[in-house]
Amino acid sequence: MSDPLVLVTDADGIRRITVNRPDKLNALNAATLDALQAAFDAAATDDAVRVVVLTGAGPKAFVAGADIAEMADLRPTEGRDFSLRGQRLMRSIETLPKPVVAMVNGFALGGGLELAMGCHLRIAADTAKVGQPEIGLGLIPGFGGSQRLLRLAGRAATLELCLLGAPVTAERALQLGIVNRVVPATELEAETLKVATQLAASAPLALRATLDVVNIGGECGIEEGLQYETAQFGLMFATDDMREGTRAFMERRKPSFTGR
Ligand code: COA
C-alpha cells in the first residue's frame, strides 16, 4: 500500500497534521487537498483536539506549491474547480474553531504559502523560503494567496511577491508580516511545541471567540466589529473557564480550563 498523503498524530491535545509527499516536496495534488480537507474537518469536531500544528514531511519543504504536473493539462473549468477545492480547504482552516499553527520547515511556495497563510500563526525555520511564484508558470495564485497576502502584508509586498515571483527568505517574510516568528531550523520543533502547548492549555472558548472576532473584524467596519467583540466578550461570562481563570488569578494558582 502507498504511504498516506497526510499523516495525523495526537499528543496532549495537540493534533499534528503532516503533508506527506516528501519526494514531490509535498506538492498539493487534488488527492492531497482532499486528504487535508478530511483531516481538518475531523479536527474541527473533535473536542480532544485543542490546537492543530500543520507541517510538511521531509527536510526540505513545508509545501512547494500546487502540483504543477497535475495542473499542466487542466482545462479552464477544471482549473476553476481546482482553485475552488484549494480555497475551500484554506477557508476551513482559517475558520476552524481552534488555533492552527503552521510549522514552516522549508519551502512554502505558491499553494504552500497559501496553506500557511490560511493558518492562524506561522513559525518558520530560518532556512525556509516563501513566495508566490505562479507568475513564472503563466498563472496567478488560486488558493486565496492574492487576497490573504494582501491582508497580511499589504499591497506593496503582495504586488512584489506576485508580480516578480521571487521567493523571499524567512527573515524577509518576518519583516513583511507574513510569518510570526523565525527560529533556527534546529529549534523549529521545540519552539512550535512550546506555542502549541500554551494554546492547548488555554481556554478553548476564549480561543475560539478570539479567532471569530479577528476573522469577522478583518472583513467588516469598526462599528460592527466592536459590537461583535462586545457580544463575544459578554458571552465569555457564561463560561466556567472565565470563572476559573479569574479565580485562579486571585488565588495565585495556574488555571485549569475545561472548555465549558
Ligand atoms: N508540483 C509538482 N511537483 C513538484 C513541485 C510542484 N509544485 N515542486 C517540486 N516538485 C517535485 C519536482 O518535480 C521533483 O520531482 P522529481 O524528483 O520526480 O523530478 C521533486 O519535487 C523535487 O523537486 P526539485 O525541483 O528537484 O528540487 P530542487 O531542490 O531542485 O528545487 C524548488 C526546489 C522548490 C525550488 C523547485 O522544486 C520548484 O521551483 N518547485 C515549484 C515551485 C512552484 O512554482 N510552486 C508554485 C506552484 S503553483
TrEMBL record:
Classification via InterPro entries: ClpP/crotonase-like_dom_sf, Enoyl-CoA_hyd/isom_CS, Enoyl-CoA_hydra/iso, Enoyl-CoA_hydra_C
Source domain of life: Bacteria
Gene3D superfamilies attached to this UniProt entry: 2-enoyl-CoA Hydratase, Chain A, domain 1, Lyase 2-enoyl-coa Hydratase, Chain A, domain 2
UniProt KW Lyase keyword: yes
Keywords from the named record: Lyase
Signal peptide as annotated in the record: none
Keyword Transferase: no
SUPFAM superfamilies: ClpP/crotonase (SSF52096)
PROSITE patterns associated with the record: ENOYL_COA_HYDRATASE
Family: Belongs to the enoyl-CoA hydratase/isomerase family.
Protein known as: Enoyl-CoA hydratase/isomerase family protein
Native source organism of the sequence: Pseudoxanthomonas mexicana
